[in-house]
């Protein structure tokens, strides 16, 4: 009986392993030759530039997956998705990957048939007000009218914060960013709430006089933002997850798009594994051993992506804050490629 159970258990494990590597999405993406990603159309995260090309930290995430799979970061197509449409688009197969400043939560991982891959931007929800309003704290906004996007964790966090602090507010539910900021400037809304990075990016591009506005100091929530994929294809999930991790690891080990060829000569075993000098890591993911080399060469490491999308080399010039490496005072921490 024990031998039979052992045999049955082994067979069961083989079945599970086979299912885990079935690769429905992985195989479909490979067959069609490009990665279809869902974007938000927000400066810093994902926006079309003057040349009609997608740029932003979420775009780089999608491009990096394409570089890992095809050896070509340009094998990407993007859909602009609203907050209300983004999950349906992923569930239906309209997109292969949601790379759209999406907060990862327990409910979203357990009720939608989707799963978060990892965090590529740590954020917090804040509230934007006109400086002349004189508010120094969100608690000064008792009875205020606040613009917020419907169907988001932002809407729920706002209600939780005001209820928890026993103050009242009147929500104005508007999906479109431009309409939110039009209502804000017209005085129809006293304040606007969203993720702080999102708000900072939008106020610079959508408000006529951004210096007349400020984001109040409180954090209404934690907002771990990152890509999502459909459940049921661990091979695709792993490729996206390890694409993110290798970009962070590359920054920690000082591997950049400019020095990656020179780093092929490194004697550091970690660098050798990342760049495929020591073989095997790519095979385990179902791609070429140069997968990480291609990501870094064509897209860059996490720090490079942040700097040109949101940081010092971008018009936004947002401080990295929590998104610094853990070795530099932040909490961005890549998992070992080994």
UniProtKB/TrEMBL annotation:
Q: Upper taxonomic classification of the species?
A: Bacteria, Pseudomonadati, Pseudomonadota, Betaproteobacteria, Burkholderiales
User: Which Pfam family, any one of them, does this sequence belong to?
Assistant: SBP_bac_3
Name the record gives this protein = Amino acid ABC transporter substrate-binding protein
Q: Which family does it belong to?
A: Belongs to the bacterial solute-binding protein 3 family.
Domain named Solute-binding protein family 3/N-terminal is located at 34-263
Under the heading InterPro entries, the entry gives: Bact_solute-bind_prot3, SBP_3_CS, Solute-binding_3/MltF_N
Signal peptide annotation: 1-22
Question: Keywords in UniProt for this one?
Answer: Signal, Transport
Mention one GO biological process in which this protein takes part, according to its record. Answer: amino acid transport
């Amino acid at each position: 009986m024990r031998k039979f159970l052992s045999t049955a258990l082994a067979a069961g494990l083989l079945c599970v392993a086979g299912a885990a590597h079935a690769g429905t999405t992985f195989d479909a993406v490979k067959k069609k030759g490009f990665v279809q990603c869902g974007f938000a159309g927000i400066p810093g995260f994902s926006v079309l530039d003057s040349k009609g090309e997608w740029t932003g930290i979420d775009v780089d995430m999608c491009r990096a997956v394409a570089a890992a799979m095809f050896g070509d970061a340009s094998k990407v197509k993007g859909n602009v998705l609203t907050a209300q449409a983004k999950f349906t688009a992923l569930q239906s197969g309209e997109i292969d990957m949601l790379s759209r400043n999406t907060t990862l939560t327990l409910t979203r991982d357990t009720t939608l048939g989707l799963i978060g891959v990892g965090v590529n931007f740590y954020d917090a929800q804040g509230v934007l007000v006109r400086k002349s309003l004189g508010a120094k704290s969100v608690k000064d906004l008792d009875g205020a009218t606040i613009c917020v996007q419907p169907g988001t964790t932002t809407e729920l966090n706002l209600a939780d914060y005001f209820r928890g602090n026993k103050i009242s507010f009147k929500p104005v539910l508007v999906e479109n960013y431009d309409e939110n900021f039009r209502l804000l400037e017209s005085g129809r809304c006293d304040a606007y709430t969203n993720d702080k990075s999102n708000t900072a990016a939008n106020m610079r591009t959508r408000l006529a006089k951004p210096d007349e506005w400020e984001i109040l100091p409180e954090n209404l929530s934690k907002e771990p933002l990152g890509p999502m994929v459909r459940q049921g294809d661990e091979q695709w999930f792993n490729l996206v997850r390890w694409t993110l991790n290798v970009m962070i690891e590359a920054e920690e080990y000082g591997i950049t798009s400019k020095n990656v060829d020179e780093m092929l000569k490194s004697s550091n075993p970690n660098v050798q594994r990342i760049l495929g000098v020591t073989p095997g890591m790519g095979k385990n993911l179902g791609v070429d051993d140069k997968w990480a080399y291609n990501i870094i060469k064509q897209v860059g490491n996490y720090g490079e992506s942040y700097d040109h999308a949101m940081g010092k080399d971008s018009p936004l010039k947002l401080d990295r804050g929590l998104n610094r490496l853990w070795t530099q005072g932040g909490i961005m921490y890549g998992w070992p490629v080994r």
